[in-house]
Amino acid sequence: ETQTHTTAMMNHRLLLRPPIVQILRCRNNARRSMLTTTASRKLACCNFKQHVLPLHRAGTASGNNCIREFNTEAEFHQRSDKTLQNIQECIEDNIDEIEEVCLASGVLTMETPRGTWVINKQTPNRQLWWSSPISGPRRYEYNEEAGCWIYTRDGGNLKEILEEEILAVYGQQIDFQDE
């Protein structure tokens, strides 16, 4: 009986001290969260629902919360393929000095004097991922209102950042057309 009373007291203390919750991005209105706490995960999971506030649609760091949640995988592929093709065509048409531009299986690879840029589709996350020798790795989500892919951390626009890096590498201003 003493052990049961002690366990009840521990549970009561956990209820008074809500666990630290890190909310992950929701997809298709499904609730997905990751819980970290100083108490044991087993006890914390029992009380988890009582402490989690309703999840809101996640936005970017810039405060823009119009991130597109594609209804189907086909919609994502259509939008991302169009973006990758647009970038490839614009680079091929405007930069003669680029060593190689290749788009295959949802991966756009660009060989430059400063290294290789890679932009690829991440279908499970509905994101475009970019790896740059200048700015490093970045993840982009489509912003419906702005009509562009937005960096998930600082709200930067994929095409604007790419234009800046092309200017830095080639000394040439390039303007990506709207999709």
Q: Explain this structure to me?
A:
It is found in: Mitochondrion. GO terms for molecular function: 2 iron, 2 sulfur cluster binding; ferric iron binding; ferrous iron binding; ferroxidase activity; iron chaperone activity. Belongs to the frataxin family. The structure is a single chain. By secondary structure, this protein is α+β, with helices and mostly antiparallel strands. The protein has two domains: 2-51, no CATH class; 73-170, Metal Transport, Frataxin, Chain A. The chain has helices spanning 2-16, 41-46, 48-51, 73-94, 158-170, and strands at residues 20-23, 33-36, 100-104, 107-112, 115-122, 127-132, 136-143, 148-151. The strands form two sheets. It has a six-stranded antiparallel beta sheet with strand order 3-4-5-6-7-8, covered by helices on one side. Strands 1-2 form a two-stranded antiparallel sheet. Strand 5 (115-122) and strand 6 form a beta hairpin. The longest helix has 22 residues, at 73-94. It is globular and about 40 Å long.
Order of helices and strands: HEEHHHEEEEEEH
In DSSP terms, counting alpha (H) and pi (I) runs of 4 or more, how many helices?
A: 5
CATH superfamily of the largest domain: Frataxin/CyaY
Number of strands: 8
Domains, number? 2
Major β-sheet annotation: 6 strands, antiparallel
User: Do you know the CATH architecture of the largest domain?
Assistant: 2-Layer Sandwich
CATH class descriptor name of the largest domain = Alpha Beta
What is the C-alpha radius of gyration, as a whole number of Å?
A: 22 Å
Instruction: Say what oligomer this is.
Output: single chain
Averaged pLDDT: 72
Catalogue the unreliable spans: 12-64
CATH topology of the largest domain: Metal Transport, Frataxin, Chain A
What order do the strands of the largest sheet run in, or round the barrel if closed?
3-4-5-6-7-8
Strand content: 25-35%
- What helical percentage do the residues reach? 25-40%
Termini Cα gap: 69 Å
Overall 3D form: globular
User: What is the structural class?
Assistant: alpha+beta
